[in-house]
Amino acid sequence: MNDVETGPVAAPGKGPQGRRRGRGARERILHASQYLFRQQGIHNTGIDQLCEVANVSRRTAYQHFGSKDGIIAEYLRQLDPDTMPDVFDRDDLAPRERLLAAFEIPQGVVDGVTPLCPFIAAAVEISVPDHPARIRVREYKLSVARRLTETAREAGATDPEELGEQLALLLDGASVRTRALNADAFRTAAAIAAILVERAIPQTLPRPH
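The structure assignment produced for this chain is given below.
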């Protein structure tokens, strides 16, 4: 499944007297950023609100991440560090099946509504090309295309680079369309992906007896 398309993140929990339960400052900051950035956006989340939810001082946040930009970049790095391992690292599926598994309906979809891919959302909010978050987004999206290409090559595609790029574009398009229309576009994307895969990967004919 497309694991960057998760459902709403649980709000940071509080223990007795408002203290956070069993989390270090760095982990609390990242947990708060995951909740706030997904719920209200990056620009709408100020560093003071982030520190308040994480129960840390601004100084502590800067000691760990240097700036809000550093928090944003690390937030993105933590979302999917291994690039969709629940799709590409599955031993129970053949390579051809793994390509199509990337289009399974994302976890957390309710009535066809899903949050926008956080990497796409970050790219929309942050226009500066050399911003640490934009760099991370670019790295991640290239990584997805690369893993699709590697899997397409393993499956025997005649042009794995082309198929990988086509499927990567289709994934992002399904994410944006689902969010824009509040209607699941992944079923249609999966059907298109099946056609692309069918055309790109020759069927193995049985050997004559």
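Interim note for the steering committee: Confidence is low (pLDDT under 50) at residues 3-9, 14-22. The two ends are 40 Å apart (CA to CA).
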